[in-house]
Design goal:
The structure is a homodimer of 238-residue chains. In chain A, helix 1 packs parallel to helix 3. In chain A, strands 2-1-3-4 form a 4-stranded mixed sheet, covered by helices on one side. Chain A is built from 9 helices and 4 strands. The longest helix of chain A has 29 residues. Chain A has a domain of 121 residues: Up-down Bundle (Glutathione S-transferase Yfyf (Class Pi), Chain A, domain 2), CATH 1.20.1050. Chain A has 238 residues and is of the alpha+beta class. At the A-B interface, strand 4, helix 3, helix 4 and helix 5 of A face strand 4, helix 3, helix 4 and helix 5 of B.
């Protein structure tokens, strides 16, 4: 069955966690809103009042009769199909839990440039953004990445992955978060990332996977930019 | 097997979504941190470097060999066991998707009083909170509750529940969110809630369930307060 991904066509954003999973697995999919006329089709579908399972916002995925929104729910659905989730219940649940924690970190990264509200431009909330970004750099990045380092160190079967000994969508998500943080906060990350050696090694391992490397080098990988979730504004990088 | 819930003992917070599910199902559980010495036990367990699946933060749940954190992952795990999730995959996934959207709304409600950072007091971010709360009241509450109203209206088997025709943990979560918003933003909610008649009818239906009513009347239900996620500060209610 064809997998259709619906997400904003000009940013990585939350959709990138899904794109990375599909690409790493070599899955066939259509990135609908990037096709000609696709964004209009996405908006029309979202507005259809007859949908039994409407999305609150992109990304959402359609496969046959399944329509599922929320990044982490999409990954929960795709994980086993793409062989990117452990076979056992406890492992699957923990992979999902990690994915939710990555989503929390991502939402907080977004709020560094939008601390007051999504309906306002960055320029309209810049003083607040300066304060929030400082807290994020000093307190939150170390707390989150320190947690993922701890999880890898405690992995009973080895410290090369977050869960088990094979690649999961949580590993891909951690790669994406490190890339996003490096783009948005290069100085803050450079000053700190030696404190999380396992996390950085996993980032390097994921980047070197042939399918991921091919994707990153392709024009399917949208560049980070200041419309996305991870944004580089020099004044927000301490 | 005994279900142990670990969460901060003096607030409803995110743990309340789990407490409500356990209570509505009449499940036996221990609210560990509310027992004598329980909060110290919770903190000690969280700090145990040998845990293969450590939580990033409370709430977390332990049942036999399962340890699971993140409110929505806990509900995903408990839903089928407590008969609070549909039997079919699409229904289960949609229930989870709605639960994630309720968690997003809850996080945004939190950020109305903490727009700059969790390490600071409300008093240290009051001007920013006034701006963020205004956006939240005017834009975000209507967007979220309007979405849940739409979901109920589009439910193919009737508009009395979010998913299917039986109670799910998503219904319980929507009840909790309405209660929290009414506590935190009574004026804003009173001015608007007639726009979401199905949502309010579901709130009333949940409140009247015998097990839920008994729980709400008991001392197990912690009162809303200004240490929790939903906080009432009169100046933030427009």
């Amino acid at each position: 069955m064809t997998i259709e991904l619906y997400y904003w066509p000009s940013i990585q954003g939350r959709g990138e966690f899904v794109r990375l999973a599909l690409e790493a697995a070599g899955a066939a999919y259509v990135d609908v809103a990037r096709e000609p006329g696709g964004q209009a089709r996405m908006l029309k579908l979202m507005g259809d009042k007859g949908l039994p399972h409407p999305p609150f916002a992109p990304p959402f995925l359609v496969e046959g009769k399944i329509m599922v929104a929320q990044t982490t729910a999409i990954l929960l659905y795709l994980g086993p199909k793409l062989d990117l989730a452990p076979a056992d219940e406890a492992g699957r649940l923990f992979t999902h839990q990690l994915s939710l924690t990555l989503a929390d970190l991502t939402a907080e990264a977004h709020d560094t440039h939008h601390p007051i509200g999504v309906s306002l431009y960055y320029a309209d909330q810049r003083p607040e953004a300066l304060r929030r970004a400082s807290e994020f750099r000093e307190q939150r990045i170390p707390k989150f990445l320190g947690y993922f380092e701890r999880v890898m160190a405690a992995n009973p079967v080895g410290d090369t992955h977050l869960v088990g000994r094979a690649l999961t969508y949580a590993d891909l998500g951690l790669f994406q978060v490190v890339e996003g943080l490096r783009y948005a906060f290069p100085k803050a990350m450079q000053a700190r990332e030696r404190g999380w050696p396992r996390v950085i090694a996993l980032r390097d391992q994921v980047a070197a996977l042939p399918k991921v490397a091919a994707y990153l080098a392709s024009d399917r990988r949208i560049a980070f930019n200041t419309d996305g979730i991870f944004r580089h504004y020099a004044e927000l990088d301490g």
